[in-house]
Amino acid sequence: MQVNGQVIKELGTKVSANDEILVDGVPIQREQHHYYLLNKPRGVISSAHDDKGRKTVVDILKDGGVVDRIYPVGRLDYDTTGIMILTNDGALANRLMHPKFEVEKTYIAKVKGVVKNDDMRQLRRGIKIDGRRTKGAKCKLMEVSDDRQTSRVRLTIHEGHYHQVKRMLKAVGHPVMKLHREVYDGLTLTGIPNAGEWRELKPEEVAHLKGMH
């Protein structure tokens, strides 16, 4: 290996992003980071690959001409729709998923039954699931249909436990019929209103996600 024209034989030699590195005479280039925002459709897997051959969120971008190696940040269930970030920036992905950064995500849920004020109070206090109480959710009752015995609720959480929104609502007696994520850390689906649409993130949006705001 050569660094800036000098042969390096010592293990553990540190290099910077600005160093020119050759291995067997071939230059090593840093992978350029790419950032995308997707409006995930229902019936698509939140993964880069699926052993069962089902369509993934990465497939949607590949079909649209993206050739970069990218991965989804976090997951949305197979039947859940809405905003997702895909990137090859592992440091950013880890930041967004780490609990200490309390990244807020807002969901719209259509649920069975008429949601009462007491149900909303429980959601705001937090729900005990598997012996552990979730953080309280910000929530708003958006619509109630007495005829159909359904309700629509907006919930904002900053945790990411397995099936958390569905399990919280089921715990207060209102199983989820449809779930859509409309906001992720302040980003919305503006510009990509239809399921399956996607776009690159703007530099200022990336800076926001990195906490540089």
Automatic annotation (TrEMBL):
EC numbers: 5.4.99.-
Domain Pseudouridine synthase RsuA/RluA-like: 34-170
Gene Ontology terms, MF aspect: catalytic activity, acting on RNA; pseudouridine synthase activity; RNA binding
Top-level taxon in the UniProt lineage: Bacteria
Key words, A-Z: Isomerase, RNA-binding
One Pfam family it belongs to: PseudoU_synth_2
Enzyme class: isomerase
GO cellular component labels: cytosol
GO biological process, one term: rRNA processing
N-terminal signal peptide: none
PROSITE patterns, per database record: PSI_RSU (PS01149), S4 (PS50889)
Family: Belongs to the pseudouridine synthase RsuA family.
Annotated PANTHER family: PSEUDOURIDINE SYNTHASE FAMILY PROTEIN-RELATED, RNA-BINDING S4 DOMAIN-CONTAINING PROTEIN
Name of this protein: Pseudouridine synthase
Lineage of source species: Bacteria, Bacillati, Bacillota, Bacilli, Lactobacillales
